[in-house]
């Protein structure tokens, strides 16, 4: 077989927009995953990359596969959901979460944290290590939700190739490892060529399938983190999700977002920034 020629986007913009609407509707009606309120530019970027991977020319062709082949639907959902994180892959986020956990969890009796639309096991493990560094994890409940049963199973069964721990050590150092906690490997159990987070750390993590678009508030939290999924949400969906977080956040709890509140943000009056120029907010009303 010869080399695959890159897909040419020949559909007129108005036709591609209609195709995008129909594909989003098909995903919702056939599988219950609602991307209709997602930001269109992000959807088009992710789906065009998937078209090239699958050697397809149009979203209509992809829709036909989605409707009749669960494997194709799984590929689309994976492309549209939050990409999997690697440990300490975002040094800024790690530093922000370290400050957030110190500020709002230290004084709580039984603090609860929600990683909403979690980017897989390694984002959760990163936060677990940060909390363990500060002596907070043993009394903290870390609730991690993902959008599909497939992502849930992967997160629960996740392990890391042993050779990647060295790479992660460098990321850990860039994020500002706590004094006295300089070896990331100390937090892992190693079997053969695979590593997994220590049982005493994993036991503080609860995993669940949860749909930010349709599901209701399920608990009250001292810290809610949603930095990686929110950029893909359109304005109306973003407002719906922020209202959900507001209903789920304890008084004086912290909300870690992808960007700062807009000046005309309806919920902004209920929050105060914890740090200058950072999207980390304390609920004050």
UniProtKB/TrEMBL annotation:
Gene3D superfamilies: Vaccinia Virus protein VP39 (3.40.50.150). Residues 8-257 form the CheR-type methyltransferase domain. It holds the Pfam family CheR_N. One of its GO terms (molecular function) is S-adenosylmethionine-dependent methyltransferase activity. Coiled coil: none annotated. PANTHER family: CHEMOTAXIS PROTEIN, CHEMOTAXIS PROTEIN METHYLTRANSFERASE. This is Chemotaxis protein. It comes from Pseudoduganella aquatica. The lineage of its organism: Bacteria, Pseudomonadati, Pseudomonadota, Betaproteobacteria, Burkholderiales.
């Amino acid at each position: 077989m010869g080399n695959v020629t890159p897909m040419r986007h020949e559909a007129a913009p108005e036709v591609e927009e209609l195709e995008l609407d129909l594909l989003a509707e098909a995903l919702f009606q056939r599988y219950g995953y609602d991307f209709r309120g997602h930001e269109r530019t992000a959807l088009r970027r992710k789906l065009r990359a998937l078209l090239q991977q699958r050697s397809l020319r149009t979203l209509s062709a992809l829709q036909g596969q989605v409707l009749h082949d669960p494997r194709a639907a799984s590929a689309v959902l994976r492309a549209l959901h939050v990409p999997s994180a690697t440990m300490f892959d975002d040094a800024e986020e790690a530093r922000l979460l370290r400050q957030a956990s110190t500020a709002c969890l230290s004084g709580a009796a039984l603090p609860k944290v929600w990683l909403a639309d979690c980017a897989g096991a390694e984002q959760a493990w990163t936060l677990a290590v940060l909390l363990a560094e500060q002596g907070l994890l043993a009394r903290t409940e870390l609730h991690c939700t993902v959008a599909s049963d497939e992502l849930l199973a992967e997160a629960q069964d996740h392990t890391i190739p042993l050779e990647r721990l060295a790479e992660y050590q460098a990321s850990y150092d860039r994020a500002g490892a706590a004094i006295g906690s300089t070896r990331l490997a100390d937090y892992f159990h190693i079997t053969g060529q695979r590593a997994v987070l220590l049982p005493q750390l994993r036991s503080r993590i609860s995993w669940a399938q949860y749909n930010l678009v349709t599901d209701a508030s399920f608990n009250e939290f001292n810290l809610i983190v949603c930095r990686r999924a929110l950029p893909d949400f359109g304005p109306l969906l973003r407002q719906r999700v922020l209202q959900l977080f507001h209903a789920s956040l304890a008084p004086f709890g912290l909300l870690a977002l992808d960007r700062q509140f807009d000046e005309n943000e309806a919920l902004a009056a209920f929050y105060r920034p914890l740090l200058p120029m950072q999207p980390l907010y304390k609920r004050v009303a």
